[in-house]
Amino acid sequence: MPDAPDPLPPQDPPPQAAAAALAPAPGAALAAPARVVPLASGRSIEIAEESAEERIQIRAAAGQLLVSIRLTDEGPVLSLSGASLEIAAAKTLSLSCDTLRIQAAQDAAVEVGGSLHERVRGSVVREAGRSARTTAREVMLEASPGGVEIRANDDVDIVGERVRLNSEDPPMPLSWEEFRARQALAEGPGQRSALVAGEDAAPGGPDDRSPRGVS
Question: Helix (H, G, I), strand (E, B), or coil: what is residue 90?
Fold first, then answer.
């Protein structure tokens, strides 16, 4: 049986094909190697260029990324990482963005020396895992044009010097006569006859000095 012919040795590709394989794709640019500037503290500054983006990074001696500045077509992007970060402005510090997210793994505190004004065009949802408390010299709640709803799975305690529901402004009237006189002044002369006609129907009669429902 005749021997099989020896396989042909591999042939090198034509020079034109090899050059085409090594050439960058259309529109692509060769990335320059990053330049590293070591510092005396052991930290280093790294400067790199990638396509249409330039990057400046500061790394710790162990290699952790501390500061990163990326220059993109949409603008600069700044990233900071560290145990503590402090920003101080002598006059004004302004933040403007489409979306603001603040996340604290533990506690958060906001202290304002003057007044605090909040304006929200949408809805406000506040959730507390435990208790919530509001303390002020004066508290006012107003819903317009909607209503106010209070729900509790346990007791609802309202404690005050006087608890008034749809009542007159203080000082409170001490008798039915004083109450009717106020109503007559508030509603006009045309209502006086109706109030006088209803004296006999008032609880306790006109001589009762402590009108029921008026405290």
Answer: coil
